C-alpha cells in the first residue's frame, strides 16, 4: 500500500521527528524556517506523508526559482518537521517546542482536524501565524482565533455537491443513512449535512455516530440492509472507510450508492480495495488541470507530474492544499517585505492569489471557500462526475449487488 520510498523514509524517522535543514539555533541569516508537526508514523501516516511530501516539494521549488525576497534580500526556505506519531498530545508539545525553543519564523499545520484544533491554540498563544492544510472542521475557525488559516474548505459543506447530485439521479434516492465518526472533522460534516438533507427533502432514516478508528461496522451495515437504504453517506477517515467497504461486501450490503468524505480521490484507496473500490463516490476540492495557473510550477498539471516523479504516487487534494499553504505564507511575506509575525498574519488574512490549488482567499474566519467536485471510481479510473450543478461524466448508478459485479 505504501511506496518503497515511504517505507525507507519511515525507517529513518526518530522518535522525536524528522528535521529537514539546519537547526534553527544555527540557521543562517538568509533562511526563513517553517515549522510543522505531522503524523509520519502511526495510524494517520498514510495521509500525513501527503503533507510532508507536498511541503518539501514546494519549498524546494520556491528555492530553485530564486527563494523569497524581503526588502531586496533573498532568503532560502527551510522546512523543520517533527513526527507526532499520530498522537495529538505529542503534536501540541512539538508545536510548543517549534515556537518557544526552536524559534521558527512561521508555522504550517498538521492533519487531521482534531490535531489542528489543538495545535492552533499554540499558534494563537504565541501569536505566530499558522497556515494549515489538513484541518477542515468548522470548529477550528469558530473560536475567533486570529492566527490560524486553513486551505481546506469547511467540512460542513463536504456533502453539499453530493446532495445536489441526488436530485438529478434517476431514480432519485429517497432514503439516506448518515454515518460519522466522533472527531472534530466528522462531527462538523454531520452538522452541515443534516440540514442540507432536510432542505433537499431527503428522508434520513439513520443518523449514527461511531467511534473514531472503528473497525467493526457490522451492526450499522445490518441496519442499512434491513431498512433498505438507498444512499449511504459516511464521514470518516481512510482506514475506517476501507473497513466499511470490506465489511459491506462481506455482508452483501449494496445500497444504490455510497459516498465517503475521504479516501476515494486517493490512489492508495483504489489500490487497497482493488475492484471492490468500483462505484464508490467521494469528493474533492482539487483535480490537476492546466487551467489552474501557478507562479512556481506553471500550472496544477505540472505540479502533479513533478509530485509523482519525485515520490512515486499521485497527489490528491491533500497535497495541493499543502502546497497552497506554503505559497500563502510566501506571498504574505513578500507582500509586506517583513518577517514580523503580526505583519505576515495581516497579509495572509488580506491576500488573495491564484495557485495550483485554485483561488486562495481566506474568509473572515480564516478558512477558504472551495466547491467540492463529486468523483467516482469507475473501473480503473477516478472520474469527476458532478460539479454541484451539472454532470461532468455519467455516474455508474445505481450500484449493483456484489455478486453481480
Report on this structure:
It is a single chain. With 405 residues, the protein is α/β, with parallel strands linked by helices. The protein folds into two domains: 4-153 and 287-361, Rossmann fold, CATH 3.40.50.2300; 157-284 and 373-404, Rossmann fold. The chain is built from twelve helices and 17 strands. The chain has helices at residues 4-12, 45-64, 88-100, 113-126, 160-166, 184-199, 218-227, 238-251, 267-273, 300-311, 317-336, 341-350, and strands at 31-38, 68-70, 73-83, 106-108, 130-132, 148-150, 175-181, 203-210, 231-235, 257-260, 281-284, 293-294, 298-299, 352-355, 358-361, 373-378, 381-386. Strands 2-3-1-4-5-6 form a six-stranded mixed beta sheet. A four-stranded parallel beta sheet has the order 8-7-9-10, sandwiched between helices. It is globular and about 65 Å long. The two termini are 24 Å apart. The model is unreliable at 1-26 (pLDDT under 50).
Amino acid at each position: 500500500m505504501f511506496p518503497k520510498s515511504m517505507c525507507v523514509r519511515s525507517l529513518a524517522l526518530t522518535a522525536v521527528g524528522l528535521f529537514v535543514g539546519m537547526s534553527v539555533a544555527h540557521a543562517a541569516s538568509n533562511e526563513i524556517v517553517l515549522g510543522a508537526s505531522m503524523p509520519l508514523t502511526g495510524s494517520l501516516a498514510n495521509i500525513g506523508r501527503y503533507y510532508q511530501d507536498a511541503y518539501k516539494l514546494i519549498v524546494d521549488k520556491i528555492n530553485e526559482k530564486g527563494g523569497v525576497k524581503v526588502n531586496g534580500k533573498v532568503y532560502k526556505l527551510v522546512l523543520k518537521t517533527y513526527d507526532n506519531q499520530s498522537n495529538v498530545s505529542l503534536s501540541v508539545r512539538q508545536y510548543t517546542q517549534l515556537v518557544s525553543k526552536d524559534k521558527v519564523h512561521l508555522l504550517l499545520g498538521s492533519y487531521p482536524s482534531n490535531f489542528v484544533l489543538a495545535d492552533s491554540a499554540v499558534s494563537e498563544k504565541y501569536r505566530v501565524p499558522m497556515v494549515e492544510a489538513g484541518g477542515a472542521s468548522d470548529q477550528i475557525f469558530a473560536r475567533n482565533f486570529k492566527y490560524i488559516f486553513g486551505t481546506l474548505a469547511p467540512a460542513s459543506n463536504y456533502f453539499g455537491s453530493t446532495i445536489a447530485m441526488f436530485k438529478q439521479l434517476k431514480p432519485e434516492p429517497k432514503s439516506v443513512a448518515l454515518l460519522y465518526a466522533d472527531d472534530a472533522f466528522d462531527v462538523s460534516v454531520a452538522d452541515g449535512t443534516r440540514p442540507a438533507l432536510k432542505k433537499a427533502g431527503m428522508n434520513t432514516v439513520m443518523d449514527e455516530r461511531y467511534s473514531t478508528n472503528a473497525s467493526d461496522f457490522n451492526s450499522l451495515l445490518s441496519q442499512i440492509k434491513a431498512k433498505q437504504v438507498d444512499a449511504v453517506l459516511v464521514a470518516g477517515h481512510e482506514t475506517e472507510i476501507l473497513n466499511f467497504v470490506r465489511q459491506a461486501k462481506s455482508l452483501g450490503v449494496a445500497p444504490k450508492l455510497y459516498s465517503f468524505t475521504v479516501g476515494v480521490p486517493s490512489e492508495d484507496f483504489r489500490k487497497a480495495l482493488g475492484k471492490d473500490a468500483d462505484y464508490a463516490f467521494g469528493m474533492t476540492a482539487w483535480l490537476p488541470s492546466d487551467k489552474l495557473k501557478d507562479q512556481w510550477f506553471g500550472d496544477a498539471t505540472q505540479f502533479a507530474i513533478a509530485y509523482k516523479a519525485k515520490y512515486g504516487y499521485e497527489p490528491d487534494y491533500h497535497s495541493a492544499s499543502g502546497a497552497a499553504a506554503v505559497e500563502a505564507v510566501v506571498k504574505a511575506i513578500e507582500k509586506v517585505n517583513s518577517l514580523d509575525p503580526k505583519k505576515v498574519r495581516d497579509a495572509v488574512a488580506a491576500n488573495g492569489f491564484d495557485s495550483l490549488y485554485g483561488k486562495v482567499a481566506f474568509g473572515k474566519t480564516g478558512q477558504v471557500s472551495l466547491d467540492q467536485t463529486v468523483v467516482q471510481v469507475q473501473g480503473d479510473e477516478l472520474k469527476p462526475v458532478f460539479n454541484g450543478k451539472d454532470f461532468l461524466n455519467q455516474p455508474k448508478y445505481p450500484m449493483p449487488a456484489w455478486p453481480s459485479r
